[in-house]
Amino acid sequence: MRVLALLDGTLADPEAPLFRADDLGVMRGDGCFETILVVDREPRELGPHLDRMERSARLLQMPLPERAAWERAGQAVIDAWPWDSEPEMGLKLVCTRGIDGGDGTPHGFAMGMDVGPDTKRKRDSGVEVVTLDRGYAPDLMDRAPWLLLSAKTLSYAVNMAALREAEERGADDVIFTASEGTVLEGPTSTVVLAQGRKLLTTPPASGVLAGTTQGALFRAAEQAGWETEVVDFPTSALFDSDGVWLASSIRRLTQVRAINGTSVKADDALHNEIVNLYESNY
Ligand SMILES: Cc1ncc(COP(=O)(O)O)c(C=O)c1O
Fold first, then answer.
1. Protein residue with its CA nearest to atom 1 in ligand 1
2. Is-contact 7 85, C-beta < 8 A?
3. What is the pLDDT of residues 178-203, one digit of tens each?
4. Backbone angles phi, psi at 117, to 5 degrees
5. Where does 120-279 sit in CATH, by number?
6. Of ligand 1's atoms, which has the minimum distance to the CA of residue 247?
7. What is the largest distance, in Å, between two alpha-carbon atoms of the chain?
């Protein structure tokens, strides 16, 4: 299922071509995007997603159409979505730098997509992951801002290659590690640990995306009396913790059951508590 809207709020045929062959998004993956979960017509964390898209565009030094245009296109998709048969939707906002050699006008659209059965199954039964070296040190972001480490750019080929590598190794997903052996993030997710009544995640300053799902979970957890810490931690912490999750808008909180073929603690009651904390935001 696909519903497509342009930034003026009009609907378009999702099966018809939309971009020119010389669009820089097509030719170089030059642009930024967001994926937002919408449940029963209600977008989750819309403000933080739009804030992050503006930040990504700033890091890319490209103009971004105004916020109202994204809200208008997103609402057009939500209004046209068949909520009775599909109660949840992934809403993609995509913006490219525009035509190669053109006048610099960015091109964007909003597209609603259904959440696949594989994602839902992993949410329910958890995942096995492998750790893969991402090849950079946690301080690289400061030293080399042009690498756009914490921006959500359209260049996800490396992230997708890592997921294929996981599949070849018989796993479902990936946790990237830094060259120092600390934990970064998943190719499309934030890593969250539980240690007693404390939740931990890696700081965006280490070059990971600031996750809106992790942000929502930590907000609710703090209100419920949990401690939270945003800090670099070694790969060994994945094995010593009371639970490990991959967090992202569409997968929500997916529990990690094994890492590199070794089981990690994956308590059902704790998983339910974490999921309920996140859901209590909505
Ligand atoms: C690299 C990366 N890290 C983290 C996340 C999680 O972000 P969010 O919770 O805002 O969806 C994503 C989302 O796709 C991602 O691509």
1. 188
2. no
3. 988 999 999 999 999 999 999 999 99
4. -60, -30
5. 3.20.10.10
6. 9
7. 56
